[in-house]
Amino acid sequence: MAFPRKEHPVSDFIAARHIGEKISFIRNGVYVIGTIHKILENSVIVEISEEDAEQIGAASSLTVVAHKNYTVV
Fold first, then answer.
1. Tens digits of per-residue pLDDT, 6-24?
2. What SS3 string covers the chain?
3. 22: number of CA atoms within 13 Å, CB side?
4. Which residue from 20, 21, 30, 38 could staple onto 45, CB 3.0 to 4.6 Å apart?
């Protein structure tokens, strides 16, 4: 049996985001700039450089960042 998803209002900040937009965030003390790859309800999937991925200890050049933890560049 499946339950229907509850609809949540989307904040203006999240609604204004778009794929390809540049954002910045700090992870493990490293300032990182990346490009939004996919927008989710509570976070974004961001493509970062291989060098940045290595510095922050990410397994690949894609990482997840919560909406509250990044700023638009």
1. 888 889 999 999 999 999 9
2. CCCCCCCCCCCHHHHCCCCCCEEEEEECCEEEEEEEEEECCCEEEEECCHHHHHHHCCCCCEEEEEHHHCEEC
3. 4
4. 38
